[in-house]
Design brief:
Elements (H helix, E strand, L loop, with lengths): L1 H37 E6 L3 H12 L4 E6 L6 H12 L5 E5 H8 L11 H6 L4 H6 L9 E3 L5 E6 H8 L4 H7 L3 H14 L4 E2 L8 H6 L6 E2 L2 E2 L3 H15 L11 H5 L14 E2 L1 E5 H11 L3 E2 L5 E2 L7 E4 L10 E4 L7 H12 L2 H9 L4 H7 L18 H11 L3 H5 L5 H15 L9 H16 L5 H15 L7
Parallel strand pairs: 1-2, 1-3, 6-9
Antiparallel strand pairs: 3-14, 4-14, 5-10, 5-13, 7-8, 11-12
Helix pairs in contact: 11-20, 15-17, 17-19, 20-21
Length: 477
């Protein structure tokens, strides 16, 4: 009897072991498949993608997110991303910044995600954001959650002083094209006795001219200098020679100083700046933080808070600046899941509303994933890529903190108008992957010409030489 019981016990154990092996094998196989399908690897250069990834996990708790952030310092992100794409060992979703999105979109590294276009149509996604993610053959390879039209911000108190009004509609009329803008700069110079500059740097309005070229930089592999670039040379010299600009370096301490009235000249005399050209994100990330008084190295308070003394208008020309797009490497093992993430982050009405309204607070995100730490969050106010969502949000934005900063204006209304101008003007039709390299090659020669150090012919020759050195395969005549 004991032998029978023992035999039965052994049989049960063996069956159990075999069953267990089968289950483990199945689970392992299923687990490996699940791991293959449910692990989403995301690379980005900012934490914004991590905010989306955490919110995505709330809707997809079975998905494990592997997020990698690589800084853009000295092109590190682009280099590492390109190396991974060439090796085939790729993430599933990649973030692409405006300055280099075209170079990746025009390559053969990214998957075709044109099948998401119907979702974009439903949300009335701004066409210029779609154009940036579309390659030369009409294949869509990236979508953005942001629209980043540029506008002109100006000081209300200075507008009243020099133009008799701070009314945005009237100021826009005075500066509705580049020639009017230059004429207004002359008035500011004369009425302020040279103590107020129209702009802090000529680099501030470079994007306006780049965006409104009638031709791309390269046509049939030849460098093309559009008439708008010739105009940029003339305007830059006009502003420099006539003292209409403060001659600061964009993003330098003195450039920011014009935002809080702590700017001084070489002799220590106080100076002011009338206007800045910045995109949508420039309001919350650049202008607002730098409009407050600062402490100098000696601990003395310099400048003062200019909050509430600003206004914004579409400005002389439509332009776009910055933004982030998401694409899927074609060698990703999880293309469908990656596309689901992109659809969630860029083509989902609820997500875009939450993003713009600041729903994704640190508290909200930590409830989903406590490991995100104490800093991850998305503040309210970002201008999203859906015209439909924007129009729904405009009434809600009229009492936002940013509205108080610009003297009671609704910034979302102005951004919407600026975005509409970009689509109507089709300003991004000439964007190419080599634009950033070419435009960087322009700045030193342009600066030398504006300062009167070289003739226009010499400056143009230096520009062409710079392009030839940077892009040796491009024909430069």
């Amino acid at each position: 009897m004991r032998k029978i019981i023992a035999l039965i016990t052994i049989v049960i154990m063996v069956v159990g072991l075999l069953s267990g092996c089968g289950q483990n094998s199945q689970t392992g196989q299923s687990g490996s498949v699940q791991s293959k399908e449910k692990v989403l690897k995301i690379w980005s250069f900012t934490n914004e993608a991590k905010v989306f990834a955490t919110a995505f996990k709330e809707k997809h708790p079975d998905v494990k997110i592997e997020f990698t952030m690589i800084p853009m310092t000295e092109g590190e992100y682009q280099l590492k991303l390109k190396s991974a794409l060439q090796s085939g060992d790729v993430p599933d979703v990649v973030a692409l910044e405006a300055s280099f999105v075209r170079s990746f979109v025009e390559s053969n590294y990214l998957a075709d995600i044109s099948d998401l276009l119907p979702e974009a149509k439903k949300l009335e996604t701004y066409q210029f954001t779609i154009d940036m993610g579309t390659d030369q053959n009409g294949v869509i390879k990236a979508y953005s959650y942001q629209a980043t039209p540029g506008v002109m911000y100006y000081r209300r108190s200075l507008a009243k002083l020099y133009f008799g009004t701070d009314d945005p509609a009237k100021i826009q009329e005075l500066m509705s094209n580049i020639d009017k803008f230059a004429e207004a700069a002359k008035i500011v110079k004369e009425k302020s006795n040279g103590n107020t500059y129209m702009v802090a740097s000529t680099a501030d309005f470079g994007n306006l001219f780049f965006a409104n070229r009638s031709q791309p930089w390269i046509v049939n592999n030849k460098l093309v200098i559009d008439p708008q670039i010739d105009k940029l040379f003339d305007i830059a010299k006009l502003f420099r020679q006539n003292g209409y600009e403060a001659q600061t370096q964009q993003w330098s301490e003195s450039w920011f100083a014009g935002m809080n009235d702590s700017l001084v000249d070489a002799k220590g005399n106080p100076k002011q700046v009338f206007a800045y050209f910045l995109p949508t994100w420039g309001l919350s990330y650049v202008l607002q933080p730098n409009a407050v008084a600062k402490q100098n190295k000696e601990g003395k308070t310099v400048g003062h808070d200019t909050s509430g003394d600003w206004a914004l208008i579409p400005g002389p020309l439509p332009y776009q600046w910055g933004g982030t797009w998401f694409g899927v490497p074609k060698d990703s093992k999880n293309i469908e899941l990656a596309k689901e993430f992109i659809k969630f982050a860029t083509l989902n009405e609820e997500t875009l509303k939450n993003w713009a309204l600041g729903v994704y607070t640190n508290e909200y995100l930590k409830k989903i994933d406590p490991s995100v730490g104490n800093d991850l969050k998305q503040p309210a106010g970002d201008f999203v890529s859906s015209k439909k969502v924007v129009e729904e949000l405009i009434p809600q934005m009229k009492d936002a903190p940013a509205s108080k900063f610009v003297g009671g204006q609704n910034p979302y209304e102005v951004f919407a108008e600026a975005a509409k101008r970009i689509d109507l003007a089709n300003t991004l039709k000439n964007i190419q992957g080599t634009d950033d390299v070419i435009q960087r090659a322009l700045w030193d020669p342009l600066d030398a010409y504006a300062s009167g150090k070289v003739s226009k012919e010499e400056a143009v020759k230096q520009f062409k030489d710079n392009v030839k050195n940077a892009l040796p395969n491009v024909q430069v005549n």
